[in-house]
Amino acid sequence: MSNAAPPRKAPDQPWRTEGTPDEPTGRSGGRRVRPRWWGLLLTAAIVFLLAYVGLTYLGTGDEPTISYTEFSKQVDDDNVSKIYSKGDAIQGQLKNARDNPEGSGDYTKFRTQRPAFADDDLWQNLSSHDVTVTARPVVQERSLLSNVLISLVPIVILVVAWILVARRMAGGGAGRMLGRRAPPKPVELRPGTQRTTFADVAGIDEVKGELDDVVDFLEHPDAYRRMGAKMPRGVLLAGSPGTGKTLLARAVAGEAGVPFFSASASEFIEMIVGVGASRVRELFAEARKVAPSIIFIDEIDTIGRVRGGGASVSGHDEREQTLNQILTEMDGFSGSEGVVVIAATNRADILDPALTRPGRFDRVVNVSPPDRGGREAILRIHTRGIPLAEDVDLTRLARTTPGMTGADLANLANEAALLAVKRKQEQVTASDLSEALEKVQLGAERTLVMPEEDRRRTAYHESGHALLGMLQPGADPVRKITIVPRGRALGVTMSTPEVERYAHSEEYLRGRIIGALGGMVAEEVVYGVVTTGAENDLEQVTNISRAMVARWGMSERVGRLSALPSDAQQAYGLAAAPHTLDVIDHEMRRIVDECYEEALRKLRDHRGQLDALAQALLENETLEEVDAYRIAGISRLSKDTDA
């Protein structure tokens, strides 16, 4: 089964690895630059000398030096308590503080120097005034050892700061002044775990077929070299989120048995210019050491956008520098033979052309959501470790989940298992899967107490959607109707197709519009008013009708042209002439009005069935597919035949 990649070895390593040896062999990854320790030693020596000199010569205390005349005067005034003499240097302490005539402030301890020519009887004078002559200095000074030890404190702080800064910044341009660190060692896959292979991937067989060539090349490179064939430099996986792009990349590496390096493109970008490019160089260097290997870069559109869209303040954008480094590494100038780069994006249309040209990303593989068979296979993979009850039919579940990706289906299976645990069940039942599907698609139930009139109006609203879906030829079958509030909706009608639809006819799209208008029409038929409950329905109607007129050529007046391309819809009004926009608006209104009149006619003709569905909803709150068709008096067999 699928296993997550091991954690990073160091926080400044912006990639994860699996399947790599403990210690890479060879030095193909480039020369290792050792840190410049001589600079650290020189700085430490200078700091030590400055600290020692300061402590020895500047840290002698704040005792003032007085004149010998002032000292003699204090002895005569009987104000000296004790002194200490070493040669002609004298230290002493007064009994009472005195003003310093040669300085500012009072003093108690002092220093003075006895002149060599003095012939006064100092000892007798001191004895007569009871001055104690001590054997220890009055002013205590630090020893040489103390000064040396205290001087080492800044050195220790400097070394610690040096190491911390070097570790954090060695990966980027600013870290080079401290000496670039050696690239971190690859991480070994945890013991007892299995690597991801194609057996863990389902539902996208056509994509696996395109990647088989890469696997075969990685397994048998010599056979291709003898024929003169070159390994593809890069494979770009483009598709919607959750379709399994990352899983595919890991499966290719696991199937071929080669090391796998994975990173997100955003992890290369930092505030400091040059960090991203440096990390890209290190990543490719590590991959070349254990070549053949695979590098996977997720969300490459973060750094791979078309260049030239805007200049940074410095004129040298960090994102573009990182992209340029990736282009250089893939171009082969740095000897990246044996390294295949697989990238994933859901915005392939905004990538720089230099990335997608041959020689860089040679293959662009579109990863689409799985079809019905693929969804069934994916469900079987994600329920391998889940005990299922006998009433669970994964084939039927796959039929009711069109458009869901592999990630959606994995979440569906997990939500069902969580529900079973909450209910203290031993197995996951069909009811658990059904409720999990509702939660995933519609949102969690809300404990909302509605007035009876609003509840009845909601029942008619949802019955209108459901009945028109049952009556309209070619419409998707109704799977469930509920008036239990979920998410932002007060009620929901679920309709999903029996088979995958890859092209939609005008009749089918009109049926979608009629079904979406069913709630509003039902409220008008029964109550004669329209409420705000149709907001989401009108959004769907607007999007479908605009696409029919402006993109799919389903209007005679607009003609067979794409007046509003898909990516210009958000800038509606900028992609066509004003007259064309007026025609588009007119045609949209015409289509919607025709559909509204048809929906109104059908619900008035089948008012009895509408009342029956609404009454059943008020009693049961939720109607499954079989019950809904039975109450409406419509046969599913005839419905399928009409479809």
Question: How does this structure look, described?
Answer:
- The longest helix has 28 residues, at 578-605.
- The protein has helices at residues 37-58, 68-76, 122-128, 144-169, 205-219, 221-226, 245-256, 275-289, 318-331, 353-356, 372-382, 394-399, 406-422, 430-442, 452-471, 506-527, 535-550, 578-605, 607-620, 625-632, 636-642, and strands at residues 16-18, 80-86, 89-99, 106-113, 132-133, 234-239, 260-264, 293-298, 339-345, 363-367, 478-482, 492-495, 622-624.
- The protein contains 21 helices and 13 strands.
- The protein is α/β, with parallel strands linked by helices and 643 residues long.
- Mean pLDDT is 77; it is low at 1-11, 23-34, 171-192, 310-316 and 638-643.
- The protein is elongated.
- A hairpin with a 6-residue loop joins strand 3 and strand 4.
- It starts with 15 loop residues before the first strand and ends with a helix.
- The strands form 3 sheets. Strands 1-7-8-9-6-10 form a 6-stranded mixed β-sheet. Strands 4-3-2-5 form a 4-stranded mixed β-sheet, with helices on one face. The protein has a 3-stranded antiparallel β-sheet with strand order 12-11-13.
- Helix 1 (37-58) packs antiparallel against helix 4 (144-169).
- 45% of the residues lie in helices and 11% in strands.
